[in-house]
């Protein structure tokens, strides 16, 4: 399963831990801060500043958040 491969890879980064996400899937953390999470259906949510988010969307490498499109 690809989710397990991603979990193994990201969890191997220094200081990163994984745990179940409150809405399903896997959440990755550094200390108490969420680095991002993967939904069970494969969608990846990574928090960015609005400036970076807008640039990634402009470059067509990311989409706005599916529920909170105005968030960072």
Helix and strand topology:
Layout: H1 2-11, E1 16-20, E2 26-30, E3 33-38, E4 44-45, H2 50-58
Antiparallel strand pairs: 1-2, 2-3, 3-4
Explain what this protein looks like in three dimensions.
- Helices cover 26% and strands 25% of the residues.
- It is of the alpha+beta class and 72 residues long.
- It has a domain at 2-46.
- The chain has a four-stranded antiparallel β-sheet with strand order 1-2-3-4, with helices on one face.
- The protein starts with a helix and ends in a 14-residue tail after the last helix.
- The relative contact order is 0.13.
- The mean pLDDT is 89.
Number of helices: 2
Q: Mind telling me the C-alpha Rg?
A: 13 Å
Low-confidence stretches: none
Average pLDDT works out at 89
The description of the largest β-sheet is: 4 strands, antiparallel
Structural class based on helices, strands and sheet pairing: alpha+beta
Task: Give me the count of strands.
Answer: 4
The order of strands across the largest sheet is: 1-2-3-4
The shape, in one word, is globular
Binned, the helix content reads 25-40%
Compressed to H and E, one letter per element, the order equals HEEEEH
Short description:
The N and C termini lie far apart (29 Å). The protein is of the alpha+beta class.
Keywords:
single chain; alpha+beta; 4 strands
């Amino acid at each position: 399963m690809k989710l397990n491969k991603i979990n193994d890879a990201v969890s191997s980064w220094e200081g990163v831990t994984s745990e179940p996400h409150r809405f399903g899937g896997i959440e990755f953390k550094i200390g108490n801060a969420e680095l991002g999470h993967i939904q069970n259906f494969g969608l990846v949510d990574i928090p960015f500043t609005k400036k970076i988010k807008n640039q990634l969307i402009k470059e067509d490498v990311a989409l706005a958040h599916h529920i909170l499109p105005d968030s960072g």
